[in-house]
Specification:
The chain starts with a helix and ends with a helix. It is mainly alpha-helical. Helices cover about 75% and strands about 0% of the residues. Helix 1 packs across helix 4 and helix 2 runs antiparallel to helix 4. The radius of gyration is 17 Å and the shape is flat.
């Protein structure tokens, strides 16, 4: 799953080569986090979300999760830390296995 999101990030970096500087990526990540927060609030029925937007939509929530992950991955691509990122995931996974949480 993460490999496919990484492919999307690489493709979008090629499609929009002028939008790949760290501050642009971080700004995009912050914006996507805000949109994800809006969808979570909708699912949690805070305020008047149901009245205003109707029932929560799992597809919209999934899309916003994907956008946040993709934007975060673009940081690793920019700084060329893909191997370190993958190693950090493997290390964390192994620790959770050792502690018998997985």
């Amino acid at each position: 799953m993460l490999n496919n999101v990484e492919k999307i990030a690489i493709g979008l970096n090629k499609k929009y080569p002028n939008g790949n500087h760290p501050f642009q990526i971080i700004t995009r990540l912050a914006e996507e986090c805000g949109e994800l927060a809006k969808e979570v609030n909708h699912f949690e029925n805070t305020g008047r979300k149901i009245e205003k937007y109707g029932q929560p939509n799992k597809n919209k929530l999934a899309k916003e999760v994907q956008y946040v992950i993709r934007s975060a991955l673009q940081i690793s691509l920019y700084y060329k830390i893909e191997n370190e990122f993958k190693k950090s995931i493997e290390k964390r996974l192994e620790k959770l296995k050792q502690d018998k949480f997985i």
